[in-house]
From TrEMBL:
Species assigned in the record: Motacilla alba (White wagtail)
Location of the protein in the cell: Cytoplasm, Cytoskeleton
Record keyword Coiled coil present: yes
Sequence ranges assigned to domain COS in this UniProt record: 336-393
Lineage: Eukaryota, Metazoa, Chordata, Craniata, Vertebrata
Protein family: Belongs to the TRIM/RBCC family.
A Gene Ontology BP annotation from the UniProt entry: acrosome reaction
UniProt key word Iron: no
Superkingdom of this protein's organism: Eukaryota
A single GO molecular function term of this UniProt record: zinc ion binding
Protein name, as recorded: TRI36 ligase
GO CC term (a single one): microtubule
Annotated ranges, domain B30.2/SPRY: 477-704
Length: 710
């Protein structure tokens, strides 16, 4: 038999850390006191209402949330999940044992079973712990006598005399079940918590809980596989008995493991002390180096101070000699009293030279030494950064890598990273970034802590390059920094708009998605009908579409993607004054009368073609970007054809009257030209044949959660 004292660990509630009192069985099969379940739910609701603040966790002194539980509260708050009272439509309960959020269903606490078996074991443990304390009779007149038996039907304890009085022979009470003295009274029949008048007589194998026949007929277990209670009792008891017998048979192996664990405990203690000693020695070495550098710096400053003081003191003495009846002047005055010419000349020549030098020094006074010690300023900025990064490095913690394909620079910066082994071995990540500036000598990294593997940044400057790096932390251990990745922000603030489905939109040739962020031109039956104009020497025209928002002033940037299969796409800007001409008098760009190659190289056709356009556009198609033929463009046509970037951008500067076309992935300008911005300017697109354009979606704070889910 197992001693009752040896199982105390199994009888402790994980919430209050005390012996179980009326334990309830959670759906995760863990046990919690009935009172603790209520307190946890109340405290959890309060924490939810206050956004997971620490002050909201003070209502119950028995319950303390762990850091992981508070993190779950914060995540649920961010995701918008809400809770109500103890019996809401769906009650979530944070299990203190498995740290998971358990759904208690519609009935909440009322749908949980009371664990009477565990309650009986706890009571036996309490009786063993207080064997010297007797249970008194509940019906004796004072002073009460020690009880000899307890009635399970009456839920009371009796001495021999009181039991005979309250359970007379020949009455119904005489048939009551009685046991030894106890304070643990449980019902003889286990009732269903959902159907309170029905006793449980079946066991649901899916939910692993007892149910009644109403639960099976029309309740939540209607389609579940159930078995009789006797069968479940026999099966579970056999399994439990076999498992216990197996563990008992492996007692020697368990003892060997315990011995090994004891050795590991001692080894851990020794290794930790050795690690502390090595860390202390490493810091002592740093202290020694700093002390040596400090002493050398102080000695250099002291030496320089003494030299400068000596020079300045000598200069002071020299100037004091220039005072009347003092020093050099006094000596010269005495020399002037000499009457012998030969003796005077002999002495006065050298004296005159000294007097002249003193006179010149008065005219251009200059201290003999500098008073500032700017040359002795110790620059420790780099060393402080290095010391700030001083931590334990582990080869077991993987170095994260910034994923440049998933990272984006648009209205905000979305920086994503991953571990090469595809395992999330770090508990938290630190993302650092700084703006690249050639004028700044020292680099100041901005730091942010991230729980996931991506971060949205919104405080970056336009038209600037930034360096990013990331490292992982697991406790006090950190990985080395990842490779630095340089990304550039858009040249101007991002301009948001949608495709206009009203102004000039041709729904026969173009198709918009419901969100109006994508437009597609299909080379279908309408295009074949339009090609009948070939008989009169005219091809089909472009189908135009514009943005639904105009720009009046300032500098703006927008980006979009052109499908690789697109045959012909034109992108650019159009002034509001020429929108009507764009849609109602569209030039036939590939008809014979606009054929640019007429057989001579005068360039007059190009000039006439450009001047006839109502808007400023560049041509894309067949995975190519075509630089327009202008005076500044290269003469060779092949050099004007570039590979089509995966993402294109347009930057319109209304104040300067210029529009630029960018490779939005690298934020590199491919072509720039002048544009008339006298009126409202609208983004313009033209498609022909099979083609599609998708507007770049802005980066939102939800993008971080989306990538984390992926």
């Amino acid at each position: 038999k197992v001693a009752i004292k040896g199982i105390e660990r199994e009888l402790i509630c994980p919430a209050c850390k005390e012996l179980f009192t009326h334990p309830l069985i959670l759906p995760c099969q863990h046990n919690v006191c009935h009172k603790c379940v209520k307190e946890i739910l109340f405290a959890f609701e309060d924490s939810f209402a206050d956004g997971g603040s620490e002050s909201s966790n003070q209502s119950s002194p028995r319950i303390r949330f762990s850091a992981s539980s508070m993190d779950r509260i914060d995540r649920m708050n961010r995701s918008g999940r809400k809770r109500n009272s103890l019996t809401p439509r769906s009650t979530l309960f944070p299990c203190p044992s498995c740290q998971r959020d358990i759904d208690l269903g519609e009935r909440g606490i009322n749908g949980l079973f009371r664990n009477f078996t565990l309650e009986t074991i706890v009571e036996r443990y309490r009786q063993a712990a207080r064997a010297a304390i007797a249970i008194m009779c509940d019906f004796c007149k004072p002073p009460p006598q020690e009880s000899t038996k307890s009635c399970m039907d009456c839920s009371a304890s009796y001495c021999n005399e009181c039991f005979k009085i309250h359970h007379p022979w020949g009455t119904v009470k005489a048939q009551h079940e009685y046991v030894g003295p106890t304070t643990n009274f449980r019902p003889k029949i286990l009732m269903c918590p959902e159907h309170e008048m029905e006793r449980v007589n079946m066991y649901c194998e899916i939910c692993r809980r007892p149910v009644c026949h109403l639960c099976k007929l029309g309740g939540g277990h209607a389609n579940h596989r159930v078995t009789t209670m006797s069968t479940a009792y026999k099966t579970l008891k056999e399994k439990l008995s076999k498992d216990i017998e197996y563990l008992i048979s492996k007692e020697s192996q368990v003892k060997a493991h315990i011995t090994q664990l004891d050795l590991l405990l001692k080894e851990t203690e020794c290794n930790s002390e050795r690690a502390k000693q090595e860390a202390s020695q490493s810091f002592e070495k740093l202290y020694c180096v700093l002390e040596e550098k400090k002493s050398a710096a102080l000695r250099a400053i002291e030496t320089s101070k003494n030299i400068r003081l000596e020079k300045l003191q000598t200069q002071v003495e020299e100037y004091q000699g220039l005072l009347e009846n003092n020093g050099l002047v006094g000596y010269a005055q005495e020399v002037l009293k000499e009457t012998d010419p030969s003796c005077f000349v002999q002495t006065a020549k050298q004296l005159h030279v000294r007097i002249q030098k003193a006179t010149e020094s008065l005219k251009s006074f200059r201290p003999a030494a500098e008073t500032t010690f700017e040359d002795f300023v110790v620059d420790t900025a780099k060393q402080e950064d290095i010391l700030g990064d001083l931590s334990f490095h582990s080869n077991g913690l993987e170095i994260p890598e910034i994923n440049e394909e998933q990272s984006r620079m648009y209205n905000r910066a979305l920086i994503s990273w991953e571990c090469p082994g595809k395992t999330d071995s770090a508990d938290i990540y630190v993302l650092e970034y700084h703006k690249l500036n050639k004028e700044e000598e020292s680099v100041t990294w901005q730091k942010t802590e991230v729980c996931g593997k991506s971060k949205v940044l919104s405080d970056l400057d336009d038209d600037s390059s930034y360096a990013f790096r990331v490292r992982g932390y697991k406790g006090s251990i950190c990985s080395p920094w990842s490779r630095e990745v340089i990304m550039r922000t858009p040249p101007a603030p991002v301009f948001s708009f949608l495709f206009d489905d009203k102004c000039g939109y041709n729904n026969e040739h173009l198709q918009l998605n419901p969100r109006r962020t994508s437009v597609e031109s299909r080379a279908g039956f309408p295009l074949l009908l339009g090609s009948e104009r070939l008989q009169v020497g005219c091809f089909t025209t472009l189908d135009y579409i514009i943005g639904d928002t105009g720009i009046a002033k300032g500098k703006h940037f927008w980006a979009f993607n052109v499908e690789a299969y697109s045959y012909l796409v034109k992108v650019g800007v159009v002034p509001s004054s020429k929108i009507q001409k764009l849609f109602h008098n569209t030039p036939d760009v590939i008809s014979p009368r606009y054929e640019q190659d007429s057989g001579h190289d005068s360039g007059s056709e190009d000039a006439f073609f450009d001047s006839s356009q109502p808007c400023t556009l560049v041509t894309l198609g067949m995975k190519k970007f075509f630089i327009p033929a202008t005076a500044a463009a290269p003469k060779d046509p092949a050099s004007r054809i570039l590979p089509l970037p995966s993402c294109l951008g347009i930057c319109l500067d209304c104040d300067r009257g210029r529009v630029g076309f960018y490779d939005a992935g690298r934020m590199k300008c491919l072509y720039e030209c002048e544009v008339d911005c006298s009126g409202l300017m609208y983004p313009a697109f033209a498609l022909m044949g099979g083609a599609a354009v998708h507007l770049e979606e802005t980066v939102t704070a939800n993008d971080r959660e989306y990538h984390d889910d992926i």
